């Protein structure tokens, strides 16, 4: 790949890695304080049932059992704190079960095997009720997910432009008028964006240790949001946040699944306090499938109208999103994130309407991309279908309808976007991949009778939340007792040895923050990267921060670290000027020293500056001692990364198997801090999106039992699922943060599923196939081929 | 039941319950926590170790089955301070992100290049097909193993896809 120059120093090896490759990285389940007790949950086999009685007598007498808790024991702690508490959940099912796998009782024993033995001996008498599982049936509303609700539909996100009823009506009229014209073409497809299990390789784990003498909790948890967890526990037990220290050690993947405070995290804290012992709970893989959130789960109809030469005149998306049985952290807000990018990179009038529906299934919430992959999937699939219908190259149709290169534009739905140059990005991809050559290769393969297809798509996403002003609209973390909006926060401290520590409230799960934040601070101060240590995932030792999710850490908290570093440098410059008897403006920082511009010999090291800072009598008159700064950073806007992907697939006509032959990308995430890490984020993101397109599917039976709880039934991509990538990037910096970075954690996932499906449909188009729902597993593809042949 | 085995070159004798899984014995009793549990059903490979010279999944092996065996875990793979070529490859080629799959992936990869010193991309991909990674998309894992194989052959690995500084 061609080198992209980073403003911040480029690819350096990760400092996280030496421990991890030696098996010495510490994850939550590796924590085992002496005397730790272990938890096993009793879970409901029914999706909807009344709990008539719970008999714990036999289990309570079994070897090693210390306690068994039910809703009666924890009701006083209240419901699980959540941000959008439309239907908050109890910590343990309280008289009523609303999804299969819901925890009904909690067993605490001296070891994990004994806890499980006892959990199996707890007898629960259920009265099963008919659940509502199917999304459309739930929206129609005969059966309610909860008997006390009037409707399963809890909110609808409607836009066009956002929030303005008159605007929405006018947009719909405009679109209708376009449809009514004789010279327009309208295509409409109902598509499923199926339910997924996020599946971080590390199952969730939490260890709570309560110290009665200090009335403090120390909780280890594998979480993306340590400060929210600390706040939630403090709130539950009526403590100050400073009485709870949450440590997130290495987090073995998150993808949104660890962007929640879970009942089990509160419950182990409760048990530790009650029993005076450390208490641990670690999910099994099977359990994770019903205990940790799911993602996606939409059914929607996309409709596009335009002229025969490819001018799009209107786009409508109308559908339903499955919330599962309760609302947890962001549950009902996920489709809202889709609405943000509902009109994508295009200028056409757009109507977006997605209703949030409760069902008796596992709760859905943010899964990598969270709303944006759904929105882009529908949009890019229908652009593809529209292009095919009018017989114009999909690249041409896209370019014709893109926003021109811009700084600060407003999307048709009404959102302010930072920067974009979509046409140049797509052109760069087409040149990079030799688009005409790819088409020729596809056509040559087809001429041999092979089912080969080419899939193109582009995306814009929105991330890097964000501006603290959103707090007034309810976007803050008050529900978890965290006194913060979505802004960032970072503290940089230079110790007396001239080495720096960065204290930051992020919650990484493999993104290489230790390396990246060190690069940011090094670039600003000239302190060598190896002399900068990053401290995160420890609430006692970091300023309040809201964690890592939504591709926000670099653009928001990284920018805060940069600001803090700048302030430290400004003070250091004053001290250096004092020591060198030079003017402050003439001080330059390079390679770990401050020198006078033009005379490199006149210099002091960071260690000498720092030593002075901690001996105030050596400082200039009136200057305070110490060398640190804390910056709270609120960006001017969220960031809007974009890109274009293309892939080639081959379908086996006899089996329906889809083979992805090539996958090439041109992404634009603004400035890049470490290209090695940014590319790695794309690789993983693309494969997760392709995993949705090709394999992954959380399947319920009619009774509401999840059938896909192991890796045998829930297929995630393996090493043979996808080819190696060919990647390039364009660079369109943002102006909403001082680093010019946008975010890269989710872009790959947001751009990839539709790329694969577009290619599969292209491969089958000559047979008359117009759409195949995800996952495009062999049987479904084979059936689509057969149906097309019969038609 | 009493079992005696050699773990990373040291003799270990312990009394275990017959139902104890080998992975739990390694993690909980020996406190070698580099070996991970990702599924307990022999699909994900996070628990891969070497037992009598074979790469095996320790979550579906009982501790008692390892009586008399020689075991190497990720903690015992490096030669003192010198990293195993596969470990080096993973670091040099960004073959890991969260690192959870990494110990199992490295143990598997070490066997692949031991048995086939010059594997093709396809052979590498098939060789790690039983080890799941949710972070990397496998792209850089393949590069890391190619790097390691070249190193183990005494050759210069292909340059990285990015410019290193
Ligand atoms: S834990 Fe052994 S294969 Fe997954
Ligand atoms: S690096 Fe996270 S699962 Fe492989």
Number of helices of chain A: 20
**Rg of chain A, alpha carbons:** 27 Å
User: Tell me, what is the CATH class of the largest domain in chain A?
Assistant: Alpha Beta
Largest sheet of chain A: 7 strands, mixed
What spatial order of strands do you see in the largest sheet of chain B?
A: 2-1-5-3-4
**Roughly what fraction of the amino acids of chain B lie in strands?**
5-15%
Helix content of chain B: 25-40%
Q: For this structure, what is the CATH class of the largest domain in chain B?
A: Alpha Beta
CATH topology of the largest domain in chain B: Ubiquitin-like (UB roll)
> What is the total tally of β strands of chain B?
5
How would you describe what is shown here?
The complex is a heterodimer of chains A (791) and B (165). Chain A is α+β, with helices and mostly antiparallel strands. Chain A is 30% helix and 24% strand. Chain A folds into 3 domains: 17-23 and 488-633, Aldehyde Oxidoreductase, domain 4 (2-Layer Sandwich), CATH 3.30.365; 31-129 and 201-253 and 258-291, Alpha-Beta Complex (Aldehyde Oxidoreductase, domain 3); 157-197 and 293-465 and 637-790, Aldehyde Oxidoreductase, domain 4. Chain A contains 20 helices and 28 strands. In chain A, helix 11 runs parallel beside helix 19, helix 15 packs parallel to helix 16 (553-580) and helix 18 packs across helix 19. The radius of gyration of chain A is 27 Å and the shape is globular. Chain B is of the alpha+beta class and 165 residues long. Chain B has 5 helices and 5 strands; from the N terminus they run ββαβββαααα. Chain B has a 5-stranded mixed sheet with strand order 2-1-5-3-4, covered by helices on one side. In chain B, strand 3 and strand 4 (54-57) form a beta hairpin. Chain B is elongated. Chain B starts with a strand and ends in a 13-residue tail after the last helix. The interface between A and B is large, with 64 and 65 residues. The complex binds FE2/S2 (inorganic) cluster (2 copies). One FE2/S2 (inorganic) cluster sits between chains B (96-102, 133-136) and A (201, 253, 510).
